[in-house]
Amino acid sequence: RRYARQDQVRWNLAPFAGIGLLHNATNGHNPLAISYGVQGQYRISRRVSALLELSNTTTFQDFDGYGHPNRLGDHMLSLTAGFTFHLGKIGWKRAVDATPYVRQNEWLMDYANFLSKENKRYADLNDRNRRTFIELKKILEIEGLLDKYGSLITEDSIGEHQGYPTNNYSGLNSLMARLRNRHWNGISPLDSTNTRYGNNGRSPEELAINGSEDMKLMQVGECIGSPVYFFFNLNTVHLTDASQMLNLDELARVANKYGLSLRVTGAADSSTGTSVLNNSLSTSRADYIVVELGRRGMPVERIIKVSRGGIADHVPVEANRHTKVELFFTEGE
After folding, report:
1. Half-sphere exposure of 69 (CA within 13 A, CB side)
2. Judgement on whether residues 223 and 128 belong to the same structural domain of the protein
3. Which residue among 78, 257, 267, 273 sits deepest, i.e. has the most Cβ atoms within 10 Å of its Cβ?
4. Which of 169, 155, 296 is nearest to 229 (CA)?
């Protein structure tokens, strides 16, 4: 109890006892001796204490050469007074049992790992939902229903898609407008040389919606709109998300409806794998898309397949693991 609350203790009383040998240099006797006493201490400050000790030593009578050798009888009484000075570290520190803290730390680590897994699961779910919303918006835009149902798909529900090349269907929508107006004269609706909008003063919106009697088709061999990208997992021919199949459905439907040709270009990430492996992987990815288009009724003779091997065109590097599909007019159509 003294050590537990040393700063609060002023008085200290300690009895003691000991046993040993005494040596008499005169007669050479070395008898057994017993010492005992009591020590009192008063703490003046943290480092200084007053000390008073009363002690006695008892040994055999023949210690001084007189008396019986096997009988106790000689005594030496002493009284000591003085001060003690404490150097270095003062006091005692109670040891703390670390077991509860170790268990708590283990529990916190397990709980943190659980939360990390849950966070990843929800992040993957949110990513799948976001991709689904993006594909749905593209379908509505292709079908011309975006104005009617677009309010159901908000920017918050779709989120911002970063890092990957985006599939922009504005060119495809423009193509559908041209197909409905086959007699276009080739002058851009934005050309304002003679009138406010060009083409008899009509705005581009009027041309896209109402058409023009003097419209004509684009040149054969010119890519229609923006390419459509299909992204793959590392070193595989598996799409990162199955919802990308919706793009294949729409590409095959539009190409068959208007007699268009497709160019399918496979690519791999040059930062991983060897040149030989990337060439093989890019070819396999292109073959995968070609086969899927064929299953959707796209004639193989209207598909051009290209393999680029390993590329480093996009950031992040995951975006280089793709197959690109482009739409073209078929010669003679």
Report:
1. 4
2. no
3. 267
4. 169
In tens, the pLDDT along 120-133 reads: 999 888 888 888 87
CA dihedral (56, 60, 63, 66) positive or negative: positive
Residue with tokens 């019986």: 68
pLDDT of residue 180: 61
Residue 96: count of CB within 10 angstroms of its CB? 8
Flag whether the pTM goes above 0.90.
no
What is the largest distance, in Å, between two alpha-carbon atoms of the chain? 149
Looking at the fold, whether 231 and 313 belong to one and the same domain comes out as yes
CA 153, CA 167: separation in Å to the nearest integer? 17
Hey, what amino acid is at 286?
A: A
Q: How many separate domains does the chain show?
A: 3
- Regarding whether 304 and 225 lie in a shared domain, the answer is yes
The answer as to whether 287 is a domain residue is yes
Where does residue 163 fall: left (phi above 0), alpha (psi -120 to 50 degrees), or beta otherwise? left
| Amino acid residing at 225 | G
